[in-house]
Amino acid sequence: MKRIIGGAVVAGVAVFGGVTATGDDTARNDQQQIIVSGGLGAFAIQTGDCLNLPDRYTEVQSVEGVPCDRPHNAQAFGAFDLTGFDQDFPGSSAFAEQADAGCHSRFEDFVGTSYQQSELYYTTLEPTEESWELAGDREILCILVPSTGTVAYDARGSGR
């Protein structure tokens, strides 16, 4: 099973370290924060996880999960299920507005400043047609990304 980054499939499927879509090869502390990097399945990503996403927008099965104090290019900041769609996969353009509104409404609570005042942007991990039909995947995962390069901090409450 795979998920799409930002609704645009460019090329191939990104897989980190052979981890399955539900696998988690990271080590976590008692607060469930990643303390040792490893492969992290697209369906195992938790709000607050820091990640390294592929350089190009693509379908992903897994990504690299990293401790938030190490360089990374993304952080999960919210998740919610899409509503109002029939069983047939509508295509990401059909749920783009709902995905954007859901992530936008979660941004300030996580980061500590409004989207308009922040130096961070967001993208999403979205269902693919395969995950929609075979696994009943309706989840949108909101992902913070820096305007350029990488960061080495937890954006939670950062005001960035």
Label this structure with key terms.
2 helices, 30% strand, two-stranded antiparallel ribbon, nine-stranded mixed β-sheet, alpha+beta, 160 residues, 11 strands, single chain
Quick description:
The chain is α+β, with helices and mostly antiparallel strands and 160 residues long. The chain contains two helices and eleven strands; from the N terminus they run βββββββββαβαβ.
Please mark out the parts with pLDDT under 50 across 5 or more consecutive residues, or reply none: none
**What is the element string, with H for helices and E for strands?**
EEEEEEEEEHEHE
Task: Bin the strand percentage.
Answer: 25-35%
Helix run count? 2
Based on secondary structure, the structural category is alpha+beta
The counted number of beta strands is: 11
Distance between the terminal alpha carbons, to the nearest Å?
A: 33 Å
Helix content: 10-25%
Strand order of the largest sheet: 2-7-1-10-11-9-6-8-5
Sheet bearing the most strands, described? 9 strands, mixed
Domain module tally: 1
What's the mean pLDDT score? 89
The coarse silhouette is: globular
**Integer-rounded radius of gyration:** 15 Å
SSE topology:
Elements: E1 3-5, E2 13-14, E3 27-28, E4 34-36, E5 38-41, E6 50-52, E7 59-60, E8 62-66, E9 74-81, H1 92-111, E10 120-127, H2 129-135, E11 139-146
Explained architecture:
The protein is an alpha+beta fold and 160 residues long. It has one domain. It contains two helices and eleven strands; from the N terminus they run βββββββββαβαβ. Strands 2-7-1-10-11-9-6-8-5 form a nine-stranded mixed sheet. It has a two-stranded antiparallel ribbon with strand order 3-4. The longest helix is centred in the middle third of the chain and has 20 residues. The protein is globular and about 40 Å long. It starts with a strand and ends in a 14-residue tail after the last strand. The model has no long low-confidence stretch (mean pLDDT 89).
